[in-house]
What we know:
Layout: E1 2-5, H1 14-18, H2 26-40, E2 46-49, H3 62-65, E3 71-75, E4 93-97, E5 100-104, E6 107-111, E7 123-126, H4 135-140, E8 146-148, H5 161-173
Parallel strand pairs: 1-2, 2-3, 3-4, 6-7, 7-8
Antiparallel strand pairs: 5-6
Amino acid sequence: MIFYTADLHLGYFPILHDTARPFTGVPEMDEALISNWNARVGADDSVYIVGDFSYNGGEAPTQYLSRLNGHLHLIRGNHDTGLNHAERLLDYCDSVTDFLEIDDGGTHILLCHYPILHEKGGYMIHGHIHNQRNHAYEILKTLPRVLNAGVDINFYRPVPLDELVENNRKYYSEEYPELFPVPPRPDRSAPGLMPRKPDFRPLPQRH
Length: 207
């Protein structure tokens, strides 16, 4: 089976505030996300991680990747570049890309961390915007073929395509406030934030 997820931000303290995640701290969040993943994903399943897997502390996040079931495919987000020893990602991921196209059964899928306007056949699957209600949200709710794979609207676990479609339908319908509470505005003064400068290092290569 194929699963999709994004924006886990394992190890990243500011995400607890920015998305109003229901965890008391980073260790509880990390363990819940890993447990939820392994409860759903088997060894033969494939998981497409559509960016921002963990906190960009400078090293490849092998301490998390080594604990996860499935065949992993990382589509890099802004927290997944600029890593020292980035080639170690390929010890645990079958592929590491910035953009990918796949077929999920008979459905064509575009995968990129950053949402891309898409209205025709298949789906575009992204991350990056979390559960914020900003101008991107207002645009994306008019585009039912653009799906947010972020854990904050997918109940903190990887999901197959049919669940992803349904979770996005509910999220953008605004009919389920109990399931998708509105988070606070992100706090840009919080300690531990990534520096606001892009780092577009090349994709890692297998040796």
